[in-house]
Write a structure and sequence with these properties.
The protein is built from eight helices and seven strands. With 221 residues, the chain is of the alpha/beta class. Bound molecules: S-adenosyl-L-homocysteine, 3,4-dihydroxybenzoic acid and magnesium ion.
Length: 221
C-alpha cells in the first residue's frame, strides 16, 4: 500500500464521480504548460470544496492561494448564479494564468483575483469593510498560516466555514522539533486551534494522488 495505489484509486474515484470537464482540463493544462508547481487540489478535493459550498449555501467565498485557479473554478461554480469569489495570489504570473483560466471557464464575472502578499490583501479587505465571507479556503504559504486563519475568522460571520489545506504533511506535523518552515507554520496554527474559542475545528488525514496529507475544517461560532 502506498503512493502507486493511492494514485490509482484517485483515478478510479475520478472515473466514477466525474464527467469530462473542458474548463478544468484546460486550467490544468495551462498550469502544466506554464510550468507551475503541480500542487493544485486533486479533482476529488476540488469537488469536495464545491459540494461543501453548495451544501452550506455559501455566496461569498474567500480563497488564499490561487495558483492557476483550479480550486477557484470548483469554488466559483458552486456559487452560481449570484455569488462571488475573491482569490488572493502573490505571484503575478500565477494570477495572470488564473485569469485566463477564469475567462475560459466563463467565470470571470464572479471571480476577482487580487495580486499581492495575502497578509496585506487581507488587511485591505478588512479596511474595505467587505461583507463577511461565508466560506474560506486557505491554501497559500504555511509560514503565515496562523495569521491567514486569524484574518479569515475576522472576515467571517457566525456559521462561516474555513477549510485549511495541507495540515498533515506526510505526518511530519507531529514532529515538534522539525525545522521545516511549512511544518513549523502548520504547527503554530494547529497549536492555537484548540484554544481558539471563536471556532470549532477538526482535521482529516487524506491519501491521494498528491500523497499523504490532510485538511482542517473550522466552523466559526
Ligand atoms: N488553491 C490552488 C493552489 C494554491 S498553491 C489550487 O488548489 O488550485 C499556493 C499559491 O499560494 C501559489 O500560487 C503561491 O504563489 C501562493 N502564495 C504563496 N505565498 C503567498 C502569499 N504570501 N500571499 C498570497 N499568495 C501566496
Ligand atoms: C504544496 C502546496 C500545496 O498547497 C499542496 O496542496 C501540496 C503541496 C507545496 O508547497 O509543496
Ligand atoms: Mg494545497
Amino acid at each position: 500500500m502506498g503512493q502507486e495505489l493511492w494514485t490509482k484509486v484517485d483515478e478510479y474515484i475520478n472515473a466514477v464521480t466525474m464527467a469530462p470537464d473542458a474548463a478544468l482540463d484546460a486550467a490544468s493544462a495551462a498550469a502544466v504548460a506554464a510550468q507551475l508547481p503541480p500542487i493544485a487540489v486533486t479533482p476529488a478535493m476540488g469537488k469536495l470544496l464545491h459540494l461543501m459550498v453548495r451544501a452550506h449555501g455559501a455566496r461569498r467565498i474567500l480563497e488564499i492561494g490561487t495558483l492557476a485557479g483550479y480550486s477557484t473554478i470548483w469554488l466559483a461554480r458552486a456559487v452560481l448564479p449570484s455569488g462571488h469569489v475573491i482569490s488572493l495570489e502573490s505571484n503575478p504570473k500565477h494570477a495572470e494564468i488564473a485569469r485566463e483560466n477564469m475567462l475560459r471557464a466563463g467565470l470571470s464575472a464572479r471571480v476577482q483575483i487580487r495580486v499581492g502578499n495575502a497578509l496585506d490583501t487581507l488587511a485591505q479587505l478588512a479596511a474595505e469593510r467587505q461583507p463577511p465571507f461565508d466560506f474560506t479556503f486557505i491554501d497559500a504559504d504555511r509560514a503565515n498560516l496562523a495569521e491567514y486563519f486569524d484574518w479569515s475568522v475576522k472576515l467571517s460571520r457566525a456559521g462561516s466555514i474555513i477549510i485549511v489545506d495541507n495540515v498533515v504533511r506526510k505526518g511530519a506535523v507531529i514532529e515538534a522539533s522539525s525545522d521545516d518552515i511549512n511544518v513549523k507554520g502548520v504547527r503554530r496554527f494547529n497549536e492555537r486551534l484548540a484554544g481558539d474559542s471563536r471556532v470549532s475545528a477538526t482535521m482529516i488525514q487524506t491519501v491521494s494522488a498528491k500523497g499523504y496529507d490532510g485538511f482542517a475544517m473550522a466552523l466559526v461560532l
